[in-house]
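Feature request, filed as a ticket because there's no other form

It would be nice if the structure record came with a short human-readable summary line next to the tokens. Right now we just get the raw output. Example of a typical job, pasted below so the devs can see what we mean:
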Amino acid sequence: MLSPEILAKYDQPVPRYTSYPTAPHFTEDVDAATHARWLAEIPSSESLSLYIHIPFCDTMCWFCGCHTKIVNRYEPITTYLDHMTVEVERVAETLGKRHRASHVHWGGGTPTSLAPADILRLSGSLHAHFDFDEKSEFAVEIDPRGVGDDTIAALGKAGVTRASLGVQDFSPKVQQAVNRIQPFDETKRVIDGLRGVGIAEINVDLMYGLPHQGTDEVLATAEKVLQLEPARLALFGYAHVPWMKVHQKMIDEDALPGTEDRWKQAGAARTFLEDHGFVTIGLDHFARDDDPMAVALKAGTLHRNFQGYTTDRADTLVGFGASSISSLPQGYVQNFPQLNLYRRALDEGRLPTARGVELSGDDRLRRALIERLMCDLEIDLGEICGEHGMTPDVLAGARPKLEKLAADGLIELDGDHLTVTPDGRLLVRCVGAAFDAYFEVAEGKHSKAV
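Raw output as currently delivered:
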């Protein structure tokens, strides 16, 4: 374990690097006209990854960091879905060519807040404008609380192949502290139902660093989760950012574990899962040894996008819905997070584009370095620079930072070859920041590293 002094030194706000440049550096210089031009330039032969954002929940989990809205009536969801189907049609028209969908991911919020008929309506809209085949993956995030058999049946009929269920922690005390009461039996009922309709690939999301959570609670939850036989697990550190997410002020800060305790929780869970047959993937994912994600890790073909680690190899991700971000060959584009602005743009016949960034050659190099680092935990600077027609000299500014990281035990440096140490894995975001030309340590933009 790293010393308390080293942990404190690196437990600073730092990006999660699901994109580069990161979202705080997007600007309004990229507008709807730019977005439309970029879409039209995508070759018809290119497969696309599609992301659908459903920003609604019926209760607020106090740990949540997502763009979501609490609704007590279904009418706002119906109105939103009306606009989203318009957006799907408009994007398809702007593309100008029919594309294959290699991967579809519904996130939120709570995608299963959609009524069963609307699950089929939305999936039907996607199938009407994009091509799917037997290799296409269709993943949906699920809050199992209150999910009925009719919703499960609709997910199966829609063609969902993978479900990702939020668990966080099964301790009643922890659940009470974050306003998410979710018994184990209810979670198991939903997973059994999903498997019953042919959705065999199950992911489970866990968290460490929650209020009243200790190593014992984390391990007890991990042990229970193994009874559900998931193919993949994610173990996210709770990001306490009440200046960004006001509802997090409901959490008792005195009940939150400190940096050293969070480190111990993450390490104990990783050891437990590895001892039970899971392969550690990058920063915070785990997969069975024969799972496609573990296979991609070994093959060096693992990727990282806004949904985290993925086996999807599509170079283009098209986002639909409020706040969603598209990753296009030319750069990144984000939709309006505000529902009224999202709807207004579509009502006025425009793409609901709020901002974005066009990638420079330097951005592409640094993005490749950071992605490979986040996925493989080692990189050859000379090799990656060569692939981008550059030499490692362009990264001279990063060298002093890398030498400090090496001196503190987070990485090993051998010429241009960099390897993250076992102790450095949990702080790999800090290593990535050494290559981030935009990065400045500042409260209010990012969650802390540990």
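Something like this underneath would help us a lot:
The longest helix spans residues 75-95.
The first strand starts at residue 48 and ends at 54.
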